[in-house]
Design goal:
Elements lengths: L8 H10 L6 H11 L4 E4 L7 H6 L4 E5 L2 H8 L9 E3 L11 E6 L10 H14 E12 L12 E6 L3 E8 L4 E10 L2 E10 L3 H10 L3 E6 L13 E7 L6
Parallel strand pairs: 1-2, 1-4, 2-3, 4-5
Antiparallel strand pairs: 5-11, 6-7, 7-8, 8-9, 10-11
Helix pairs in contact: 1-4, 5-6
């Protein structure tokens, strides 16, 4: 692992291509609505897949990102030079100012591999929110229902260019996401340690940070969460008054 974490220059170079099937337009629409004209802060801003189209809508976007390689990829895109980004860990790094919206999308809270770090992330989000501001997390529902009894491996992608398998430890909530990409006769691999987190656990983290849940959807289309949903988008608000 490099100083950029697991998202080094090799991964950053192909990140957008590898995730081209994930269209961020609906997420951008909802985030713009939730921002309501206020400035926003994205934790793990990455290559700017969400931040750049959000900024193009006139939203003032700031970011925190651990990987300098991912930020360099964003800087190479139109508008990428205009978004202020602070290099650091989203659980502890602070930037100046208060924001109407802080958001963390695309399962990235799972990249924090301990419960303590995930709690710290919520506390850090709360520090950056103005009163009435909101924190948004998009993350998968732990896929335990699809894991056969006694098994540890669960395939989540299998096509001509990408194979993915999660190696899951149900006793610790730790899992490793294994990826294999093939293109042009070349093969790339990546294994990333993560920690899955339950919706109710996130609600408790929010309460510890002084935040109240106001929305929980199955997806960015705001559909209801059900027992078969595979992900959720949750929104917590910082109270206007602490009295």
């Amino acid at each position: 692992m490099t100083s950029d974490g697991y998202f080094d220059a090799t991964i950053a170079a192909d990140y957008d291509m590898d995730h081209a099937a994930s269209d961020p337009s609906q997420a951008v629409e909802v985030l713009a609505q939730l921002a309501g004209g206020a400035s926003v802060l994205e934790f793990a801003i990455g290559t700017g897949r969400v931040a750049l189209p959000l900024a193009a809508r006139g939203v003032e976007v700031h970011g925190i990102e651990l990987s300098t390689a991912m930020v360099a990829a964003m800087r190479a895109k139109p508008g990428g030079q205009q978004i202020p980004v602070t290099i650091g860990d989203m659980a502890t790094t602070q930037v100046e100012g208060a924001f109407g919206l802080v958001f963390l999308v695309f399962n990235t809270i799972n990249n924090l591999t301990t419960q303590e770090a995930q709690v710290a992330c919520f506390l850090n989000a709360a520090r950056h929110l103005s009163p009435g501001g909101q924190f948004v997390v998009e993350v998968q529902i732990p896929p335990i229902q699809r894991l056969p009894e006694g098994e540890r491996l669960l395939a989540f992608a299998c096509d001509a260019g990408h194979m993915g398998t999660d190696e899951i430890d149900v006793t610790t909530q730790a899992f490793t996401s294994h990826h294999v990409w093939t293109a042009g006769g070349e093969t790339r691999t990546l294994s990333i340690p993560m920690r899955y987190v339950w919706p109710s656990e996130l609600d408790l983290m929010a309460r510890l940070a002084g935040l109240d849940r106001v929305h929980r959807w199955a997806d960015w289309d705001k559909s209801p969460l059900t027992s078969t949903s595979r992900s959720h988008v949750s929104v917590w608000r910082k109270p206007v008054s602490t009295r």
